[in-house]
Structures are given as C-alpha cells and as structure tokens.
Design goal:
CATH class of the largest domain: Mainly Alpha
Number of strands: 47
Strand content: 25-35%
Largest sheet: 9 strands, antiparallel
Oligomer: single chain
Length: 777
C-alpha cells in the first residue's frame, strides 16, 4: 500500500517522496532534481536493507498511484543537455522508470524505457551485509543468505563484489523482478514465454474507455509442460488470478472488465509456474472523454496527443518536446502554449487544475511570465530580446477562466493570487490608448510592424480578460471581475480604433525591409480566440471576417489555397494552420475549416510517431528549402523518417512538439460545440459536410457530463443527446427545407437562422429532460 506520498510542484519544489509498504516489504522513494540517482532509494524487509543506485544527470519526477491490486510508482525524466549542437543524436535522452508492487507478493517489478536512443545503464544494489553465497544462471541471480532473487528479462552483465551487486544493460528498455522472502526458493529457471493482446490496444490510436466494459484476449506462448501447470495473475488495469487455461491447444485467457482509472495504465501480467516467474507489462491508454469522427486520422491524432501529454508529463507541467522526438528546443515549457484547459475539458481535470496553478505560482514569483521556462521553473530565454510573455499571461487567464466556468468551487487562494497578479500585469502593460505594448514576446522574431496592438498578443489578452471577468463574477469576486472588465474594454476600444479604418486586422512582417509579408502567425488569432463561443466578441466579427478573407486569398500557396504559408512554402501547424481552422469554425465557415485541417492531417502518419503531427511542414514547391530541411532532419533524427515521408507534399519537421498540440485540441473542442451560458449549456456541433457521423462521450460540464451521437443522411439528421439536469440550447445545421423537428417522437417548436450562408435549427431542451432523440426532417 502507498503509505505516504509527498508530491512535487514546479516551481515550488522539484523534490518528491513516497513510501510503499506491503507484506513486510517497505520501499522508500525520493527524487530531488538532477541530484537524483535512483528514484527507489531503499528496500527494507525485516533485517535486510538494500540501497539502490543509478547514474545521475537526469531530471526526474515521481508519481504514486494505487491501481487494481497494484501500487504503481512512475518516475519520468530527461537527461540534461550538455551540448549546444543541433544534432539531436548528441542531445540527452528521456527515460521512464516503472516500479510495480503487487499487493499479494513480496516482489517489485522494475521496468525502464528510454524513449529516444539506446542507453548503457549501470545499476548498483548495496546490501547491509556481506554477500556470501550466490549463483548466476539463466538470467537469474540468487543470493541465498539474503533470500533475494533477481530475474532479468534480458541478458545482463552482473558482478557480485562484497556487499554490492552491480549490473549493466544496453538497449532501449529492460526490466527485472526483485523477489524477497521464502518464495525465492521456488524459482530455479527462466522460461521463454511471450504474452500478446488481442486486439493490441497498445498501438497508436487505440484506447479503452473509463467505466465502460471492455473485452481482451491474452495469448500466452511457451513450453506446454511448463505452462500447463502455471497460474496467471493480472494487476493494474484490472485484477485477476486463475490457473492458466488451455483452449484448442493454445494457452489463452479472455477477460471482460471495466477500467476504473483513466490515463496511461499498466497491465501487469505475471505467469507463475512450479519453478519460474515471468512478467509482461502493457501500457494502455484509458480515456475518460472520447471523440469519434469518420476520419481515423482525426481520431488518431486526438488520441495520441492526449497520450503524448500524459507520457511526457513531469510533476505538474508538460515539456514542449516529445520524449521520442527530436528535442530541438531546451527541456522546458512555454506559457504561450498552456494545455491546462485542454486536459481539463477532455477529462483529466486534476492535472489541468495542477497545471493552471503552475502559472499562477510563476506569476506570484515574477509578477509576469517569461518567454519560456526550464523544468525547474526557472526562466529560459528562447530569444533574449523578447523575454516577457504577455501572450502567456493572456493565455493563462483564458485557460483559468474556462476551467472556472466549469468548476468554480476550485477557486482558492492559489488561483486567486495568480489571477490577481495577471490582471495587474496586463493593466500595467496596456497603454492609455488601450493597446498592449509588444516586443515582449517572439512574434515572428521581433519583425512585426506592430510595436503595440499586435493582433496575436492583443487578442489573447483581451479574450483572457473577458472570460476571467465572467468567471470571477460567478465566483463572487466582484471587484477583481470589474477590474479585468475595465482593462478588457480599454483594450477592445484601442484595438478597434487601430484596425477599424483599415477594414481588417493586418500585421506585416519585415523579413526584407522593402518587401514585407502578411503575418500568418498573428492574423488568425483574433478569430481563433475572440469569437470563441464562450467569449463571442461580436463587435469584431466583421473585422475578423474580412481578415480571414484576406488570409485565404493572400496568405496561401499559389498551388494550394488551403496551405496557410504566407507565401513562404512553410506551413506552421499551430498559429497559422490550426489558428485559421479555429477562426473559420468560429465564423461558421465549417467546410473551409475542414479543408484547412485536412491539409495537415495528411501528415498524421508521416513519421514513425504515428498520429503525431509535425511542428512545421516545408513544401516541395520550394525545393531548395525542402532539400535543406530534409537533409537536416534525416541527419539529426534518422529514426523518425521513412520512405513514406518522402512521398508527401512536404517535409514534416520536429514531430510531437506541443506548440501545435494545444491548438489541435482547441479545434477539436470547437467541433464538439459544447459551451457554457448563464445557467445553461449550448450544444452546437460544427461538423463538416464530409462527415455523416460524429460522437462525443462523457464531455464534462459544470452540471455533469454530456454525450451525443450525430448521424446524417440525405433525408434527416438525428441527434441522440444525454445531458445533466440543466437547460440546453441545441443548434444543428440543416441544408434544404426543414419540414419538422421531433424530440422523442413529438413535434417541438424551433427557430431557423442563417450564418455565413448556412441554415441552422435552434431548439431548447428543458432541464428535466435527461435523454432526448432529436430528428430533423
């Protein structure tokens, strides 16, 4: 059982500790920044004490979770950069240590995985007494006096000297079992056993659903004479113990179970024979919220972004770089790419709340947010000329506001102090004319024409101020709400005056003094943020609509009007492409938004990281640039690219960087179309014409979770909705004539309106109705 767990919290502390105690076996865990060697410090069993040592130089976290008949200790970390070279193969690795404690035996299963490159790893176990009698045979080390046995899953170099056991392994992963006590006598050999799952739910895009029954089959292969008398035990994802069944000449086990935990949950399989013990571990993603479309690329990217966020998490933050990817940037995080709300709205509420508080702690410490931070929570300047992140402050308020609208009861002193500091800073950073001063963050590397009022920073800050004002009022913080609203109104007035005469929201980038270009980085941002369904700054709708017309006409490739490049031949997946998709969705240009989104889904399977999108795509239409990045990225990360990459319209660079991931989930959220109104919910799915089906399962709201299934054919649209006891306005697009609207087979009143040349039906579902079937004919 997990007796004690003291959690780390960036930037407050990078230390954490845990105590796991089970059947007289006590294991002490502790990490403390890069001073950590082994997360498992000490094992105590009766009079036996074992101290554990690993090589240092890793920044590690620590997490402790009680699962089904299993305690899981997970420690994820990054090696510290020792080089300024851009050659990714010279940069440090990423590692995850797993320590699994079954509740019914005195053993520890240790498993380590290196995410990028193979490592040669050395371990030392130091015993409190001299090791006298031991034997090494068949990947088993038995220490007779200590009643201890180590069972390795691969070949290792082992040396026993005095009171030390030292062993080293080279590879991308390895594991072993530490058995202690009387059961050690029974283990005399290793057996070649393999365990597989059908279906293989460890593959990219695969997942289980929390609280929904699942069925999987385990196939176990090995010597029949050993397996026929063996016992199989399952831990973690589910719990089971039984004699290993044999059917049609094969050892297999079919199980039905309901996952009770969400996240990346291990399934530990122990196969125990008369004289052997074998283990297998499967990491399985369990989602609390599920989004399903007819496009498997869309679904797969959603799933793998969630998996990647959970996989790379360190304490309460998520580093920018995928641990399996190129790791071009420093190991840290950017305030302008906060993922707290994304995690919260797709079911990982606790992590979302912890993450949003991180930025509040940083606001308390510095009064503002820097451009970027190390894993320690210390400032790191990606560009020393632009060290302050005003956009990050705005994004923090935006995410905090959205979370508070859904869960106002979490507004505590931690959140209050951070939000208050952010509002105060944006008041200070705003000129008398309402324009926020810029050149304090790296908008196109300081080449923007806008010294103040840059559309990217300004729109994020306005959106953050407006939604936090609304959220604070609902939390009872009237004065802070009023102050945020005043700053917002001042900024809005200055912003409208700046761009009103021009007729659209323009930002020029001066890469060449005599030939500026329109900024695809900043121009989509107002439509992306200020027309969000929970912000809806409709005073800017005409300006934003004209801006997006300009972007679609002047910021695209001549050969491809859905690639938002600004004529550079480079698609930036976040601010440009996904920002444009979000803005078009907010303008109800849904099919255009899908075409923009579809342009980047071409790269969903472009690298060995399936369903992980790149940060940038350089198109073949600019062949000189294409050849340069192709050569560079194949050299620095050869394990990522293949012949399939070569056949695409462009070269995908730096897959898995989180710059684009928060924007992708932002777009998914807009397509789901579930937002909060005063004392009610708005459900307005924004589904492309190419999709005949779409479903949302267990989407969390302030009042409870919402699920719906959408189906469309030539004659009718059907929406089956499950909702909590709250009024809901439902808006559904319907082409052609609308004869009638049925709800639970009864005709109901509805309203028809048009937006962007599309026709919509609006109807209200009363609070008392929890399940409704809506049919439009």
């Amino acid at each position: 059982m997990i007796k004690r767990f003291v959690e780390g919290c960036i930037p407050k502390t990078v230390s954490a500790e845990a105590l796991v105690s089970n059947l007289s076996l006590n294991c002490h865990y502790r990490v403390d920044g890069i001073e950590t060697g082994s997360p498992l410090n000490r094992i105590v069993y009766g009079n036996l004490t074992i101290k554990c040592y690993l090589q240092r130089g890793w920044f590690l976290d620590l997490d402790a979770v009680k699962l089904e008949n299993l305690d899981l200790i997970r420690s994820h970390g990054r090696g510290i950069f020792q080089t300024k070279s851009w050659d990714s193969t010279l940069r440090k690795n990423a590692v995850t240590h797993y320590y699994l404690h079954p509740h019914d035996c005195t053993c520890i299963i240790v498993y380590r995985i290196f995410h990028r490159l193979p490592e040669k790893f050395k371990e030392i176990l130091k015993f409190n007494e001299l090791i006298k009698g031991f034997e090494i045979r068949d990947r088993i080390l038995k220490l007779h006096d200590q009643k201890t046995c180590l069972i390795f899953d691969t070949d290792v170099d082992v040396n026993v000297d005095g009171d030390n056991v030292e062993f080293s392994v080279e590879g991308k992963s390895y594991g072993y079992v530490i058995c202690i006590g009387e059961s050690v006598k029974e283990i005399r050999k290793t057996v070649s056993v393999s365990v597989s799952l059908e279906p293989d739910i460890t593959q990219p895009g695969a997942y289980l659903i929390k609280d929904e029954e699942a069925e999987i089959k385990l196939k176990i292969k090995g010597p029949p004479r050993d397996l026929d008398s063996a016992e199989i035990s399952l831990y973690g994802l589910t719990s089971l113990k039984c004699k290993l069944p044999r059917k049609d000449g094969e050892h297999q086990l079919t199980i039905k179970f309901t996952p009770k935990h969400s996240g990346i949950i291990p399934l530990l399989v122990l196969v125990r024979g008369r004289d052997f013990l074998h283990f297998s571990i499967f990491d399985i993603l369990v989602l609390p919220v599920v989004i399903t479309s007819p496009d498997q690329r869309f679904n797969g990217v959603f799933v793998e972004i969630i998996r990647s966020m959970l996989q790379r998490r360190i304490f309460n933050i998520i580093p920018e770089e995928d641990p399996r990817g190129e790791m071009i940037y420093h190991h840290g995080f950017w305030p302008r790419n906060i993922y707290a709300y994304d995690l919260f709205c797709f079911g990982f509420k606790d992590l979302g709340i912890k993450m949003i508080k991180t930025y509040g702690y940083l606001m308390e410490k510095y009064r503002f947010l820097f451009d970027s931070y190390s894993l320690y929570g210390q400032e790191v300047f990606s560009n020393p000329l632009v060290s302050i992140s005003n956009d990050g402050v705005g994004f923090y308020l935006l995410q905090a506001g959205k979370i508070l609208l859904r869960k106002p009861e979490i507004f505590d002193e931690d959140l209050k102090r951070g939000v208050e500091k952010a509002i105060t800073w944006l008041n200070y950073a705003t000129h008398w004319n309402g324009l926020i001063f810029d050149k304090t963050e790296a908008v196109d590397h300081c080449r923007s024409e806008r010294l103040a009022g840059n559309p990217y920073t300004q729109s994020i800050c306005m959106a953050g101020l407006k939604i936090i004002s609304r959220a604070l009022e609902e939390c009872g913080e009237k004065e802070m709400s009023r102050k945020a609203w005043e700053i917002y109104e001042r900024q809005l007035k200055g912003f409208m005056k700046l761009y009103g005469e021009l007729g659209y929201i323009r930002d020029l980038i001066y890469e060449k003094a005599d030939k500026p270009r329109l900024s695809t980085y900043s121009m989509p941002a107002p439509g992306c943020f200020l027309l969000d369904p929970e912000i809806e700054e409709n005073n800017l709708r005409d300006l934003i609509s004209e801006t997006m017309r300009v972007v679609k006409n002047k910021c695209v490739e001549p050969e491809n009007r859905w690639a938002i490049t600004g004529g550079t031949g480079k698609i930036g997946l976040s601010y440009a492409q996904l920002g444009t998709a979000a803005a078009l969705l907010n303008l109800d240009a849904i099919d255009d938004a899908w075409k923009v989104l579809n342009e980047i889904l071409k790269y969903a399977e472009s690298t060995s990281l399936k369903y992980i999108l790149p940060e940038t795509v350089v198109l073949k239409t600019h062949m000189e640039d294409y050849k340069k990045v192709r050569e560079k990225h194949k050299r620095i990360a050869p394990w990522l690219y293949s012949d399939k990459t070569e056949r695409l319209p462009g070269w995908p660079c730096n897959p898995g960087n989180l710059i684009h991931m928060s924007y992708y989930l932002f777009v998914v959220d807009l397509i789901c179309g579930i937002s909060h109104r005063q004392d009610k919910i708005l459900i307005r799915p924004k589904i492309p014409s190419d999709w005949d089906t779409f479903s949302v399962k267990n989407y969390p709201t302030r009042y409870g979770s919402i699920s719906y299934e959408y189906k469309r054919n030539r004659d009718e649209i059907r929406l089956i909705l499950k909702k909590p006891p709250v009024s809901a306005d439902v808006i559904i697009e319907k082409e052609g004539q609308i004869g009638r609207v049925l709800m639970d087979n009864k005709e109901v009143y509805f309203r028809i309106f048009e937006s962007n040349r599309r026709r919509y039906v609006e109807l209200c579902i009363p609070e008392e109705i929890k399940v409704a079937e809506i049919i439009l004919t």
